[in-house]
Amino acid sequence: MSQAHQSTRQQSTIALLEALAPGEGYTLSALEGVRFMRANAPIPRIPVLYEPSIVIVCQGRKRGYLGDAVYTYDPRHYLVLSVPLPFESETEASVHEPMLAVALRIDLQVAAELVLALEGSATCADPPAGIFSTPLDEAMSDALLRLLQALQSPSDARILGPSIVRELLYRVLTGPQGGAIHASLTQHSHFGKIGKALRRIHASYDTPIDVGTLAREAGMSVPAFHSHFKAVTLTTPIQYLKTTRLHKARLLMVQDGVSAATASHLVGYESPSQFSREFKRFFGRTPANEAAEMRNALIQLPAQAPPQRMAMQ
């Protein structure tokens, strides 16, 4: 493909995203599980929590940090989280060149169906990783542009959108690191068992969870579970649970406007004072100050109407 064609495709993608994500933060799309990200100014390195997802940055640049590893996602590289994972992220952006990205939640049922259809042909680095960045190829770029075009029309979004999202997931599964998603769904692998435990934590973070139960459900001894858990997340199960609760509490305060005391109760803390101490230690600000600072960055705007101003259903 000629450089001129690639440049035209990139310009078309950015123009569509500019229209679909006119405001900073997150903008929902007409498709569940697909949302847009925009930043008009740099965002310093901050703690984030991503669910299993594909993030494609079309303009600007983001970097993810987990332990000593750095993951760049920009117009040439997309990011994939094969398991829910907390890490740190920073954003390069400006008013003249805002960061524009598309985030697609990985539907685990669809992923499992594709894995079965592929019959083990997905490849993966050894061992599989919970987070990785991969070069963006022409097939992924073309599919992304078609998805953004489909989101311009309510009927196209409803009828064509899901199949294009499925295609994007297929492209990831057949890419260099696709086997990581495969492994996360495979119950007999250690990575798959830890992936199941992580999903269990995210489904039940507001209830008492003990490591012994998680290890038993994974079919491992507690020491083995600790070892494999840390290999995937670079943290302990208890610290992961605490981090998840703090992130969920921050989201409740930012999006729902609840108080710190209410958020602490909703995510499973028995002591509001303990919650406030641990929150400030983790985020570097009190719950109230952090919620105020992050409200613009994490706000989710409704789906934008297409150019014809027809309401999205």
UniProtKB/TrEMBL annotation:
<dbReference type="InterPro" id="IPR009057">
    <property type="entry name" value="Homeodomain-like_sf"/>
</dbReference>
<dbReference type="GO" id="GO:0043565">
    <property type="term" value="F:sequence-specific DNA binding"/>
</dbReference>
<feature type="domain" description="HTH araC/xylS-type">
    <location>
        <begin position="195"/>
        <end position="293"/>
    </location>
</feature>
<protein>
    <submittedName>
        <fullName>AraC family transcriptional regulator</fullName>
    </submittedName>
</protein>
<dbReference type="Pfam" id="PF12833">
    <property type="entry name" value="HTH_18"/>
</dbReference>
<keyword id="KW-0805">Transcription regulation</keyword>
<dbReference type="GO" id="GO:0003700">
    <property type="term" value="F:DNA-binding transcription factor activity"/>
</dbReference>
<dbReference type="InterPro" id="IPR018060">
    <property type="entry name" value="HTH_AraC"/>
</dbReference>
<keyword id="KW-0804">Transcription</keyword>
<dbReference type="InterPro" id="IPR009594">
    <property type="entry name" value="Tscrpt_reg_HTH_AraC_N"/>
</dbReference>
<dbReference type="Pfam" id="PF06719">
    <property type="entry name" value="AraC_N"/>
</dbReference>
